[in-house]
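Figure 2 data, in text form.
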Amino acid sequence: MIYFLFIKHTKMETKHRILVIGDGGVGKTAYIRKQMGKPFIKKYYETKCINIYEDDDCIWYDFPGQEKYGLHTIHLPIDSVIYMYDVTNKLSFDNISFWKKYVKEHFGIIPSSITIGNKIDLHKYIKVKNYDVKNSNI
């Protein structure tokens, strides 16, 4: 199931638009909140649709990663993509190639992107090692 989100063009067009995408539970929402200077929330809430956060410089599109909510798309230009995985979850790292393909197919070629391994503070639970990242094609 694919959902579409239509947003009326407003003053948002002057801000940098960033899509944050990856598997569910990798910390996309927490990352966005941190970038916006908001506190960390320990309780996990699933992102069920594309949530939009806005600060002075950016518009953040928080993409849901759970399959049960279907796949979504935004009919607005995206300036940058952050592909995110959880270093304590090897499958989330392996799925980055799926997310890159999905973005290319549904959003086109985005000129600026980065892949971020999140939850690096959970040292004793890390499953994705530097070796895995260096030897991957992501």
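Caption note: Confidence is low (pLDDT under 50) at residues 1-9.
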